[in-house]
Each structure stands twice: as C-alpha cells, then as structure tokens.
Amino acid sequence: MTSLFQRSGAALAARALGLSLALSALPAWAQQAPAATQAELAQKLEKLAAELADVKAQLAQLQAQQAPQAAQGQPTAQAAPAGQGGWGGAAPAVAAAPAQPATVLTGYGEVNYNRPTKATDKSQVDLRRFVLGLQHRINERTKIVGELEVEHAVASSGDVGEVALEQAYVEHQLTPTLAARGGLFLMPVGLLNETHEPTAFYGVERNFVETAIIPTTWREAGAQLVASFDNGLTLQGGISTGFDLTKWDAASTEGAESPLGATHQEGAQAKARNLAFFGAANWRGVPGLLLGASLFSGNATHGQPGFARARVTLGDVHARWTPGRWDLSALYARGSISNTAELNLPLVGNPTLIPKSFDGWYVQGAYKLWQQGDYAFSPFVRLERFNTARAFADLGPGLTPAAADTEQVTTIGANFWITPSVVLKADYQRFKVNTEAHRVNLGLGWSF
After folding, report:
1. How far apart, in whole angstroms, are the C-alpha atoms of residue 390 and residue 332?
2. CA distance 71 to 67
3. Cβ(390)–Cβ(355) under 8 Å?
4. What is the CA radius of gyration of the chain?
5. Which residues make Cβ contacts (< 8 Å) with residue 181, sequence separation at least 6?
6. Which of 216, 286, 336, 385 is the most buried (most CB within 10 A)?
7. How many CB atoms lie within 10 A of CB 120?
8. Among 4-13, 185-194, 337-346, the least confident range
C-alpha cells in the first residue's frame, strides 16, 4: 500500500511541477506576445491555474490518507530522509509554487479625439470610458469578478456620463475542464464583447458591426457553464435575462442607431418573466487561428399588458487568423425580432419603428510593420457594412416603413503600442451613405 501511495504521489508531484513551471512562464510570454493575443494567454493562464488547483487538492487528499500510516511508523513521503527527495525518492521534492495574490486589481480606459472633416465645429475630446476591475480568489476553485465603469468622465443628472457595473459574477471551477458562472457577465458573442479593452482592437473606436448590431459591451444576469478542452475548443451556454422591447422609444433615433443597444437591460431591475437561452463555441486548435459562432434567443416583452409576445434572436460567426506579422479577422452578425407588426401599429407616425431584421459584417487586416522591445507599430484597414433596419414587417399600404440604407464604412489607420498595456491610435473613417460623418480619430488607451 505504501508503494502505491508513493507512485501516486510521485505522479501528482511531477504534474504539479510541470503546471507550476507553465504558470510561472506564461506571464513572461504574455509580455512578448502581440497585444491582440493577450486575451488568449489569459484564458490559458486561468485554465492552468484551475488544473494546478485540482492537482493540489488530490495531493492534499493523498497526504491525508497517508497520515494514519505515518503515525504508525510506516515510511511516507513526509518522512523521507533529507537529501533523498520526497515521495520515497521516486521524484525530487516539489518546491511550493510562487504565491499568487488572492486579490487582483485590473482596469482599462481610453481618451478619444474625433474630428469630422466636413463639420469641424463638432470636433470633441471624450474620456470615453474608465473601468476598474477586481478579481478575488476565495480559494483555488472559486473567484469573484467585478468591473465598475464610468463613461464620459462625469456622471450626474445633467451630464451624459454613466456609472455602471460591467461585470459582477462568481465563478467556480467544477473540474479542470468545466466552470460555472453566476451573476452579471458579458455575453460570449462576437470578437469584442468579452475582450474589448482598447489595447486588444484596432482603431480608435470599436467597429460599427460590434456596436450597432452586437451592442458591445453587452452583459446579462444569469448562469452559464464554460467548458474548455485540451483540443482548443471552448463551449459556453446558459440562461440569462434578455431585452425589453416595452421601453422602445419610437420618437428618438436611439433604436435606429442600435436596436438591441436601445433595449438591453444590463441587470438593472431587469424584467425576467421569460429568460433567454444562449450558446457559443470557439475553437483555437491551430496556433494563431480562432473560429467561433454564437446564438442568443429570448422573449422580449415579458408578458407586459398591451404588448404582443415578441422574440429577439441574435447570432454571429467570426474568425481570426494571426500568421506571422499578419492579423486578419472577419465577422458576420444578424438579428431578428418577431411579431413586430403588432408592436409597431400603435407607433405608426413616429420616426423610428421596430425593425424585423438587422445585420452587418466586416473584414479587417493588420500588419505588424515594426517592433523593437515593447514598441510595436501596426497599420490596418477595415471594411464594414451594416444595416440596423434591414426589413420591417408589413403594416399595410402606406404604413410600412422603407428599409434603411446599408451603411458602408472604410477605416484606415494604425496602432502604436508603447507597451502591451498602452496604445496610441490614429485613423480616418469614410462613410458611403452619411458622407457628412467622414472623420479623423485619435486615441490613447490602456489596460492592466
């Protein structure tokens, strides 16, 4: 029996040593990696930490089983003579892994300058957002994650600024592969929604498709499971709150700018008679390649009196490939709302009715032209087309609104990283439909 304990302990010790070395090496790799891969390295770090926690738990259980034998004078790893190594000499003694801080402060922010070329009097500087995050690990398997965001520098009843919780959830690692989350979390959709720090995307402003069609940063209250496999596949799925079409303001243009952005609830006394379902799959089985898709669907009127039952569905497919110095990405997203004819009839005469469908896509290419130490310079170009009102349900002759024009935006610019955590940006954007919106943008962003 003693030899069985020794062999099991040796195997676990060797595995713990390997995981500890991997954990200690990843931060160094992250400092040298392109900023665009930081999120992937962070996911690997979390997975390694969870697996190490599982090994430590098995070691502790094995030691507890050995304790009675040690008390009876039987040799155990703890009783091995000095200089002969632990675990009966089958493997060298494993040094304790470097202590990880239980509480970690994170954050990001960006200051942007926008100058319309045909209306320079509308030029402005904006502290677009400032976010502070806190992660506290209660034990090896359980952590609490929270992020508090301030938009537009000042938040009060007379200002445009806003203070909001971006995330607030508990995550528990059930197994080395499976984790559970509960609370307010970012939805696993698109390329930006979960990884939207300014150091992680190209251009001063977030792209229009993942703003107008996918309302980044989109969060919901609910519960989800996250499964990460050794073959690079990550699956996410769960139930959550959804959108609220009863607060649609047909007299404003907010819905025309982003149908879902105008009706999301953000966990603030969210109507929840009907919960939504969502799922996502992302595969990173080939170095430098990401392929993914997501789907969300949920009732959006919640049985409110005077409102027809309506369902919001949003799906996307996306890809990113980073061969060598290149960084190439593409995404298509489409949303639909059912029973909009019944919802729109009482709103006829207002400028913004509820669309039946909306969609958009973009392709983007960047090239790391120069790098020296922490400095890196990457020019990029992005082409995107999107329509926030692709179609309306038929309301009858003379009542059905015409579909909106499809906007096309071309963005040419560059990112200059001072360090992987600080970036300077500049770009020029040209609009095909709203030509008055042509603009030059400058930005400063950071994350830590």
Report:
1. 14
2. 6
3. yes
4. 26
5. 169, 170, 171, 223, 224, 225, 226, 238
6. 216
7. 10
8. 4-13
